[in-house]
Amino acid sequence: MAYGIGSTATVSATAPVLPQNSAAPLSIDCSGNQRVRLRSESVLGDVVANPRLNQVEVNFGVAGTLANPAIVTQFTSNGGSLTQATGMGIMSTGTNAAGTAQLVSVQSNVYRPGHEWYVYFSAVFTLGVANSFQRIGAVNTPSGSVIGSSGDGFYVGYEGTVFNFTQVQNGVNTHVPQSSWNGDPLNGTSASAFTANGVPVVFNPTLGNVYRIHGAWFGFGPIALELFSPDGVWIIAHTFTFPNLSAIPYAYTNNFQGEMGVGNTGNTSNVVLSNPCICIGTTDYTLALNNPVVDQTDAQITRAVLTGKFATASTYLNVGVDSAGDLNTSIASIAGNGIAIARPGVLLVGIADGTAGTAVGSINAALKVTEAGALNSFGQVSVTSAATSIIAANASRKSLTLSNPTGGVTAFIGSAAVTAATGFALNPGQTITINVVSAVFGITASTSQTVSFIEVQ
User: Fold this and answer.
1) Of 87, 148, 120, whose CA–CA distance to 227 is shortest?
2) How far apart are CA 107 and CA 281, in angstroms?
3) How far apart are CA 357 and CA 452, in angstroms?
4) Which partner from 56, 129, 309, 428 sits 20 to 30 angstroms from 243, CA to CA?
5) What are the chain's domains?
């Protein structure tokens, strides 16, 4: 068929409906762009090229994880128990009708607008039993309370005999049973892409499986639950769709922790949930400059802020710049090689042990001297024409600064029996800093000379 100038043609095509995760050819849209939906697309439709950044990690493959209070908080009641064995954290209700066991990560995620948040975890559930629950996911219910009884988040697990994907909104739980999920049926039929060696298989929560819940917030971003198939493909099981459906955000707060637990609510058999590991994070490396710095963020990101960890208080403090352009910090005590600062105060020069000195600055009062000669009120000592010990030995001394005022005579500094020939010539108007812990002696060639000094311990 030929078309002349000014002719128009309408071309239409219907895209084939393909089974989930089957091969699909690249296509060209009307703007000439190649189009294909990628597994790396976020729920917001953009391609995620960055590595995922874990902000919360609990790994029971590492010995001692369960017992580490910096990683998890434990809670049990009425005979419930927590153990770590075979590379898993194991939560058991025991046979008490009200037994519970729960683990909550100490860390929580920091959500970044415009980026996905996610929680990955693996789990082995007990076949659901009436009057019991098994839950694991990203929630911010306080430790010690039943997961989902307050706060916000999402989790999967058994409510009695029914396996659910659950949304928690301000303590209200919306359970969606597997039979009502809107994704893959996971039932072993030809309609399912949950396959092993290319053959659809039935999803079995009582065997080890890997789960992923991910989405965006914005108050109304969609949230998807996916399972990792035996053939190594993420399969969408269910999606909560919130845009244009609600006037209230799906979560009032979005700083989620990794939470998992079991509980009997009348059942008297032992219900067990096992978890090898869980992590929560985002797809963005950056944080706002005013975000508090903790161990995991300090290790994972590069910030445009100078920050030091104050070991005594186990907190991070920022170094800032004052109006004069000088670096300063709110750290009240710094210990290390060099200056030791004990408390805010003033710099005192020529302080004899236990006596007051002269304030000459605004650093603090931990700089200290130990004199041997005659010390006057201005932190100065007299050097005479006879070799004299002017500064006593001090094993804790870091450095010693001596200054010879202008208009005087040269003082010669050295060890015992110092002479004008063997000592270091400290000329009028000159300052020296030496690193010695032994006693310091001085002598002049003729008349006496007053020398100022500061000793740093």
Assistant:
1) 120
2) 11
3) 13
4) 56
5) 53-282 (2.60.120.200), 295-329 (no CATH), 373-456 (2.60.120.770)
